[in-house]
Write a structure and sequence with these properties.
Chain lengths: 359, 307
């Protein structure tokens, strides 16, 4: 019985969320904050495979997210709704409920294929150069999307909210919340199993010393390939969910700033610590939401006490000064983040008896 | 046909000059510290802004010396911009990179810090000065010459000349002077250098002074050529200058210089034959290709890892 604690807790949480979202006990704003939390957890944990466990430095995660977002949005709009871009729906809105996970999976697969762009050069290059490659890959993705005029180009692409409402008409449940929850649980489970598997130990071995790992019969190229593809695929899944939460995607969302946000989560949580990433993702989401209000409040306050000239407004741009500054300070004073390389079970050993999978 | 080709070559030389000037800075810092200074593109942007304020300070409505001729302002603005930008670069090194180097942490942390410092410079600038683009004052009136049907402006010639002069100067400093020898010594073996009585930190600061100074110079001339400056101008150009440095083989000054011109040439040719939105796409794709095939670039030498 004890070993089923975690699934039972998750099921309870799932039930509570469903009830709260369905009856309106949670207002729409908090629902969306919770959903972004889920998406950020997926992003942070998946980037943690590369930046934490493998010790590489990928800063183009948002690019793979963009691939997933666009592929799944285009598919779901083409299949389920009538749109200007694709015309009549290929299957029809009633099938949306059943086929939606397939759309998400398609986005994830597409993203992991684009992950090959980074994975193949990573066989030869390491460190700083790989960082450049990831940035270049993210840029190539973004630039490609902007150059395809048929799907809106730089203006963005919309129509996913119609899919969501079609799903609600079939069976009235908070569908997007359900899928974000399932996606989050699935990706954390997958990453945990991957990292603790014999194959996944190779990822840690590469982090310690690549040449030694190669000598000790770790097939480094294959491990890198799989790690990058898993990581990018999950980023694509997160992108698909993100697009369907917002109902609108725009290539301008997936810049280096988005990648930075994800990186901050990874390094804040601790490199190579899965539970740290989850924690940091939750904290960062709340912090970003809080900053949004705080700058508005600060603006009013500073104007009220007349510290700054009337013409100057404290805007949301400061968010992008605060977040990088946070990371710089983190690197200076506590580079290992909140958890270091430890998991929750290392901090609280008593938790171990509640796990089914000891790791 | 030949005329348009010559015109394109001239434009490519000008465009490549900017890349070369910025790539030289990347290359110097990388050569000495083995650190990719990701904030370099934003230092270039800061240089353009500093140049703007210098020029506004010297002429215009806040003019201290009203009625200074334009070339005179330029002659004052060049050293002023270079010095002030160098101060920014050294400050960055002091507050962000040096403590990390002292602790001897993983090099990854320094790279992350550099990237974040670049973002702070960009967005801090945007937050403080607002999103309005500033138009750079005209210092030197543009003169257009027609040579064999190819239009040449005096600014174009000036930019190309400045890039070549900078390269020669840097080359001279690195190969013929004592401090240049110290720089090469640090890049060869960082741990032996302090034992020989060479003040390593001074040499590193000097490297940052040189690199940032030339980024400031590039910023000034860039703003003179394309007289609109905005906070995000440094990001993309910085990336591409880095691509140029990589293509040339990072760590070799001649390589960075050649790489800059090569990238400028490629980009101008792409714009001549494709829609201009493809320019960045193709530049980044070239980078990916080169790094996949030759990770050390065209002129670079592979470093062997000893086990």
């Amino acid at each position: 019985m004890q070993r089923l604690t975690v699934p039972a807790l998750l099921a309870c949480l799932f039930g509570v969320l469903l009830w709260a979202a369905g009856t309106g006990a949670l207002n729409v704003y908090w629902q969306s904050v919770l959903m972004f939390m889920g998406v950020n957890i997926i992003l942070a944990t998946s980037l943690n495979i590369i930046n934490g466990n493998m010790g590489e430095f990928s800063c183009g995660h948002a690019g793979f997210m963009a691939v997933g977002a666009y592929v799944s949005s285009l598919l779901s709009v083409a299949l389920f709704t009538k749109s200007q871009v694709f015309g009549e729906p290929l299957i029809g809105p009633s099938a949306a409920v059943w086929l939606f996970p397939l759309v998400l999976i398609a986005g994830a697969l597409a993203a992991s294929l684009v992950g090959l762009l980074v994975a193949i050069p990573s066989f030869k290059t390491r460190g700083d150069y790989l960082a450049i490659i990831t940035i270049a890959a993210a840029y190539i993705v973004k630039s490609t999307i902007e150059n395809i005029g048929a799907i809106g180009g730089a203006r963005g692409f919309m129509g996913m909210s119609a899919v969501m409402s079609a799903m609600n008409e079939t069976i009235n449940l908070p569908w997007i919340m359900i899928w974000v929850f399932i996606g989050t649980v699935f990706s954390v489970w997958l990453i945990r199993r991957f990292i603790y598997s014999t194959f996944g130990k190779g990822v840690d071995a590469i982090c310690q010393d690549e040449i030694a790992a190669e000598i000790m019969s770790v097939n480094t190229d294959r491990v890198k390939l799989v790690a990058f593809m898993v990581s990018c695929g999950l980023a694509g899944l997160a992108g698909g969910l993100f697009a369907h939460i917002l109902g609108y995607v725009n290539p301008g969302t997936f810049t280096i700033l988005k990648s930075t946000e994800i990186m901050v989560m990874v390094y804040l949580g601790g490199m190579g610590s899965l539970s740290g990433s989850v924690l940091a993702a939750i904290l960062m989401t709340l912090l970003i939401e809080y900053l949004r209000d705080a700058f508005g409040f600060l603006n009013t306050f500073l104007h009220y006490i007349s510290v700054i000239p009337d013409s100057y407004e404290v805007t949301q741009v400061w968010k992008w000064v605060v977040i990088p500054l946070l990371l710089v300070l983190l690197m200076q004073f506590r580079p290992e983040g909140i958890m270091g390389r430890r998991e929750l079970a290392d901090v609280f050993p008593g938790l171990r008896k509640f796990y089914k999978f000891k790791g | 046909m030949l005329q348009s080709f010559l015109q394109n070559i001239l434009n490519a030389l000008q465009w490549g000059s900017f890349y070369s000037l910025i790539a030289l800075g990347y290359c110097l810092v990388y050569g000495v510290l083995l650190l990719i200074n990701f904030a370099h593109g934003d230092i270039f942007m800061v240089g353009a802004y500093i140049a703007f304020y210098c020029c506004m300070f010297l002429l215009g409505k806040f003019g201290v010396f009203a009625g200074l001729p334009g070339w005179m302002v330029l002659a004052v603005a060049v050293p002023l911009t270079m010095v002030l930008t160098a101060v920014v670069g050294v400050t960055l090194e002091r507050i962000a990179y040096r403590p990390l180097r002292r602790k001897g942490v993983n090099r990854l942390y320094v790279v992350i810090t550099a990237l974040m410092c670049g973002l702070i410079l960009e967005n801090g600038n945007l937050a403080l000065l607002g999103a309005s683009r500033k138009s750079f004052p005209t210092l030197v009136p543009v003169k257009v010459f027609e040579v064999f049907g190819v239009t040449v402006t005096n600014i174009k010639l000036m930019v190309i000349g400045v890039a070549i002069l900078s390269f020669l100067l840097l080359h001279f400093i690195v190969t013929r002077t004592k401090i240049g020898m110290a720089m090469r010594a640090i890049s060869y073996d960082r741990f032996a250098v302090p034992l020989m009585g060479i003040p390593a930190d001074t040499v590193i600061v000097f490297t940052f002074v040189l690199g940032s100074g030339f980024a400031g110079l590039a910023g000034l001339f860039f703003a003179m050529t394309y007289p609109v400056i905005d906070p995000y101008m440094g990001a993309l150009i910085g990336w591409k200058a880095f691509i140029a440095a990589v293509v040339g083989g990072i760590g070799s000054i001649a390589g960075a210089f050649a790489g800059g011109f090569l990238l400028g040439f490629v980009e101008i040719m792409v714009v001549a034959f494709f829609p201009s939105t493809y320019r960045d796409l193709i530049a980044f794709s070239i980078l990916l290709l080169i790094l996949s095939i030759r990770p050390t670039g065209l002129f670079g030498v592979a470093r062997r890892t000893k086990i």
